[in-house]
Request: fold
Amino acid sequence: MSTEIKAYGARDKTADLEPMTIKRREVGPKDVKIEITYCGVCHSDIHQVRNDWKNSVYPVVPGHEIIGHVVAVGKDVKKFKEGQLVGVGCMVDSCRECSACKDDLEQYCENGMVPTYNGKDKHLGGHTFGGYSEMVVVDQDFVLTIPDNLDQKAVAPLLCAGITTFSPLNHWGVKEGDKVGIIGLGGLGHMGIKFANAMGAHVVMITTSPDKAKDAKRLGAHEVLISKDEEAMKEHTGSFDFLLNTVPVGHDINPYINLLKRDATMVLVGAIEPLDAVHGGGLVMGRKRVAGSLIGGIAETQEMLDFCGEHNIVSDVEIINMDNINEAYDRVTSSDVKYRFVIDMNSLKN
Ligand code: NAP
Ligand code: ZN
Ligand code: ZN
Reply:
């Protein structure tokens, strides 16, 4: 049993996104049915539409920064009720039995978590469809509670850009007084600045775009470092306690490794593809580390949302209608996003 609903997606890797119809399952005992109000536009949506990671299944209906109201709950759902504002991020299921799931790290599920779109749909067969759609049915364990003091349209990006930056800063224990560099000022980067600032760090925005310097400071950066400026990069050599790298493509990370202090770590969250060759010397001299991080578990995502509620943190968003999505993709690809597009899903209904 299923319901047909309106959505927006791409039929192949060269196609524009266009209206389409998809199926959603009926509400099961543990399910929450959500009418989507807003959905953020993540650079990962573009990677998957364009098949950059070589695992896309078409049609792709992207969207994993979902905010909406509960319109129905299954009989065993106790945590959520009709009318409540809730969120769904990058995952809609996992095995719940492996060591990662037991450690609240469902994103690293050894049996494969189910991504919100482009994952295997256990219920209807085929693949999952994301938030560029009217509604979604999700197991209650993968639904998040949204603090009610936050503006819902600016909350949507927290479900991916928020948790993806909060989690590494949290896991690597960024603390007051640390010198933290955020590399790349886009959707993830602007959240990275806000979180690192709220954690008490001295925040340096490391960007290729000098014209973003003013915004970086407004968002909470204490300094701005232009990565193309070799002299300025030299001045910061060996001075960072932590670097969060959100650059969305493979690139030369050696200049950033040079910025790390002894024993310090740079965490990659952006480039999920080969990097340029890394010079071993840069790591050996100073016992430096390069690591990676994928979103965050459900418990930590809730922790991040609650942290945002306490500290009044949301994204800086530009609201678009569904039929502006192709233009928005072009702007994200050319680093022209300030700093997250969010789709008003009402525009899909009209
Ligand atoms: P975005 O909004 O496009 O921001 C990326 C920023 O990186 C750009 O605004 C630009 O900032 C900088 N940049 C772009 N191309 C660059 C290049 N060639 N060299 C150096 N800097 C460059 O993207 P996003 O939504 O923040 O996502 C960033 C990446 O993270 C994407 O690849 C996305 O798929 C990935 N992601 C990963 C996870 C995870 O769990 N690990 C989760 C979500 C997203 P400046 O103008 O400031 O240089
Ligand atoms: Zn994302
Ligand atoms: Zn698992």
